[in-house]
């Protein structure tokens, strides 16, 4: 496992985004995690392509874009042009997931597949060799600040086994309800990258919280 951290800007101060981007830039964080919500796939709306483009101008680290939208295949080039480095699509939103992953690669990005809490890891068996990243949701997507779902540890463990069995290079990322209370146990279960929003941006010292999440 790699012990990486991807702060989610969903919990940042949208009236002063450059301040929170600078915090991530000068911290030990590895990526920026950007949550795109359409009000259809999830019951909330966040921000879209122009905001990603604006963030890219200040960000000194890769952009990990998490699409919580229906028909994600329609927006691959738009997010690539906006500066996405990793593009995550939901398994539940992708009818032709194999084709979508190919298109993300052809656009020059790394491809991530995201699983809702109810979606079994084994459904990735026939695609795990071609994905760069699997994002396991540890809350139901749509909102920051929710409670971590305990079954996530078992899912991380199952995914680690599947990755080894298939000799895949995919990284395991976990998203939702993550703080220093559960970070060590998640890395221990086999996670490579932890997403965290509230626990970082609502803390008194976000730079220190990011560094503590890596311990
Ligand atoms: C939830 C988002 C998460 C969220 C995490 O739908 O995908 O990335 O921002 O926020 P916290 O860390 O507050 O649970
Ligand atoms: Zn997310």
What this model shows, in words?
Helix content is 32%, strand content 19%. The protein is an alpha/beta fold and 215 residues long. The protein has a single domain, classed as Alpha-Beta Barrel (TIM Barrel). It has an eight-stranded parallel beta sheet with strand order 1-8-7-6-5-4-3-2. β6 (133-137), α5 (152-165) and β7 form a beta-alpha-beta unit. It starts with a strand and ends with a helix. The structure holds D-xylitol-5-phosphate and zinc ion (ZN).
Secondary-structure content class: alpha/beta
Average pLDDT metric: 98
The largest β sheet comes out as:
8 strands, parallel
State which percent range the strand residues make up. 15-25%
CATH topology, which one?
A: TIM Barrel
Residue share in helices?
25-40%
> What ligand species are in this complex?
D-xylitol-5-phosphate, zinc ion
Ends distance: 13 Å
Task: Output the radius of gyration.
Answer: 16 Å
- Please identify the top-level CATH class: Alpha Beta
CATH superfamily: Aldolase class I
> Counting H and I runs of at least 4 residues, what is the number of helices?
8
Number of strands: 8
What are the key terms here?
single chain, 215 residues, alpha/beta, TIM Barrel, eight-stranded parallel beta sheet, 19% strand, globular, binds D-xylitol-5-phosphate, binds zinc ion
Give the helix/strand layout:
Layout: E1 4-7, H1 17-25, E2 32-37, H2 49-58, E3 63-68, H3 76-82, E4 86-90, H4 97-106, E5 110-115, E6 133-137, H5 152-165, E7 171-175, H6 183-189, E8 193-196, H7 198-201, H8 206-213
Helix pairs in contact: 2-3
């Amino acid at each position: 496992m790699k012990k990486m951290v991807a702060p989610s800007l969903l919990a940042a101060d949208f009236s002063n985004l450059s301040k929170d981007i600078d915090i991530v830039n000068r911290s030990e964080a590895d990526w920026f995690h950007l949550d795109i919500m359409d009000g259809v796939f999830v019951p909330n709306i966040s921000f879209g392509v122009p905001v990603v483009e604006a963030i890219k101008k200040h960000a000194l680290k890769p952009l990990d874009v998490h699409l919580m939208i229906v028909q994600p295949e329609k927006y691959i080039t738009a997010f690539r042009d906006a500066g996405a480095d990793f593009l995550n699509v939901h398994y539940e939103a992708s009818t032709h997931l194999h084709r979508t992953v190919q298109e993300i690669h052809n656009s020059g990005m790394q491809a991530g597949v995201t699983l809702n809490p109810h979606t079994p890891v084994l459904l990735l068996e026939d695609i795990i060799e071609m994905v760069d990243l699997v994002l396991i949701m540890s809350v139901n997507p749509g909102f920051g600040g929710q409670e971590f779902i305990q079954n996530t540890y078992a899912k991380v463990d199952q995914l680690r086994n599947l990755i080894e069995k298939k000799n895949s290079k995919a990284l395991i990322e976990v998203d939702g309800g993550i703080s220093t209370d559960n970070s060590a146990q998640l890395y221990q279960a086999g996670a490579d990258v932890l997403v965290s929003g509230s626990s970082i941006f609502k803390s008194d010292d976000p730079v220190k919280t990011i560094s503590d999440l890596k311990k």
